[in-house]
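User: Second chain of the day. Same drill as before.
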Amino acid sequence: MNAKFKRLIGGLLFVLFLAFYLIMVIAIAYGILPDKSTGLQLLFMAIAGTIWVIPGALIIKWLAK
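Assistant: Same format as last time:
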């Protein structure tokens, strides 16, 4: 696969993944968390804010090959 084409596909895949992930996190946050405690909301946001790194790193690792 051509390196430029691979970067294009990887970049698009990364952006689409992040958009989908953000929509899901926002839907969960607005649907479930408004009546929960502040600590639980903070825990959810901390986990949701860091867990996207795993698939993002896999996409970047694929691009580096």
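The chain has a mean pLDDT of 90.

User: Great, on to the next one.
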